[in-house]
Fold this protein.
Amino acid sequence: MSRKITIIGAGSVGSTIAYSLSQEELASEIVMIDINKDKAEGEVMDIEQGTCFRESISIIAGDYPDAKDSDIVIITSGIARKPGQTRIDLAQTNVNILKSITPQIVKEAPNALYVIVSNPVDIMTYVFTKISGLPERQIIGSGTILDTARLRCGLSEQLQVAQKNIHAYVFGEHGDTSFIPWTGAYVSGVHVDEYVEAAQRMGKDVKPINKDAMIEYVRKSGGVVIAKKGATFYAVSRSVCQLCKTLMASSESVVTVSSMMHGEYGIEDVCLSTLTLVGPEGISGKLPMRMNKGETEKLKASADALKAVIAQIDL
């Protein structure tokens, strides 16, 4: 089946997503759009020359009309946070970029599913939801998919068990107010705390989880990578590709993506990540996960932090 994916933004994240998609059998067409046309053309040329080892695929550096009939549009445009720049400064700058992009891309691809990756992703998802005019089901912020992947990586190393067996999630903002609802953290059907006890009885050198340290690991991983190599793009690209697979699958999956809240957990008019049912029609709805009072309060605090930023930006 012919599938078309358009990526807006040919920076490190957008280009790595394009490369990752080019190595999968997900898309038969990939369009890259960037204000710097030479950069987009260079990325496409480099990626295209490595596609002779797979089934034929069309990859072009195009303009907005080339996005016509896209199944998925991935928005990665924006600038990275600079030293001394506040989150609000970053938010307003990237919101302004998104406001210029949105009418151009929506005009050409009104039926596509939109994956918002640009940071601050929850704010950008909110703005796109408000200004695009599209049904909310078509708008999916990458949210805490990456945070959840980082959590499972950290738990896998500590618990000495495969990541695929770990069912634990990061909720809230993709940022400083994210949190782990440990009430719903399991290794297969066993709660993580019970798993530690069982592993110890087996003679394994598994320590109890330092839950404060684990959320710090999740929150600070991006900063550590940036400090060491200058940018993060591999893990987020794989996360976005996995989300694209979900959007093109024959059945739905539960993922932590950012989308508009409508009273769930007592939260409204803000985009953040909770358990969400996603599939080929986009977002079907949110799944209520049992959380204790403290966890629910953390989710509300995350929502309030995002609302405080929204209140200070020009929509």
About this structure: The mean pLDDT is 94.
